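Appendix B. Chain record.
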Amino acid sequence: MDVGVPQALRQQAIWCKAFDSPFTAELCETMADDFEAGGIIADLTGGWITHPVQDALALRLAGALHAIALTEPEGRLAQVWPQQGRAWSMAEAWPVAVESLRAREHWVRDFLKSPPQTNEVRRAVGLWPGLCAAAEAFDGPMDVLELGASAGLNLSMDRFHYDGGTWTWDSPVAGPRVALSTQWSGPPPRFPAHAAIRHRAACDQKPLNAALPEDRLRLRAYIWPDQPERLERVNAAMEIARSQSITSDAGDAADWIKAKLATRAKDALTVIYHSVFFQYPPQAVRDAITLAIETEGARATAEAPLAWLRFEPGGILGHEQKGASMILELIEWPYGRRRVLADLDPHGRFVHWHGA
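Structure tokens predicted for this chain:
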């Protein structure tokens, strides 16, 4: 059954509450009320012809407002938005939000055309230990390929600092850092001394580029404004991406991975990875991705192994779905291993590590 715009907004409010963003939750509820009252939200989205939940319409609207607050730090909206931990009141913020949307209606309509891209950097608290688990069986270079990468901020995960409470890891490479912490349970991960990324590449249907001001704004705008620590992480990751000239290729994920695997190095471990991506492509694209990887996996050798690291809802990978949590699954060729390494939070707030 199709879900209308108000229902989609209220569903997003529930999710935002679960992920510790009371401001965005109340904003979504308020936007739902406004739609039903025939206000500016109805004007902007009343003709929405596709699925508002799958399209993350609520996050597009919230992102547009946050973008206005970020680009006009002395403006009226920024003064009532919860920037940098500022106290907020929706009764005070919403009238200013309506005024801002009406004053920039053409710009807002254009902003709503593009899907959210959050680049959740803290997912690296699972991804980097997962890459290191893949590297344990191969004492050689590692090349990585990311699908659905947006701006490719997590391609630099080997430049981050990690704090799991009972363990820490820091990159041996000098330079700027992203500091990540998480609630870690289970045994500490293993970090082989030889584990390092040699080559990195990424693909997205509509990639963003951390070197472009308009793309940096979009990446920042989709961070919920009452979570300043997430904004700090994205800002730091964008600086690393810019310093390394990290970009993502534009293209279809299935076509891209097939082409990349056809020319992969024969002296390295190649790891394909993605996070909270696999639920979005059509089934035909998911099947084509799987076929390309499994076909190359059948050709993998001990001198050029292949691994597939997936940070995704368990249900879409053929496992039991445990609420809103994700699993970290590693498949390795030619070893024939398939392991669930961890259960984790979509935003990296907690990791339950099962051990590699």
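Further analysis of this model is presented in Appendix C.
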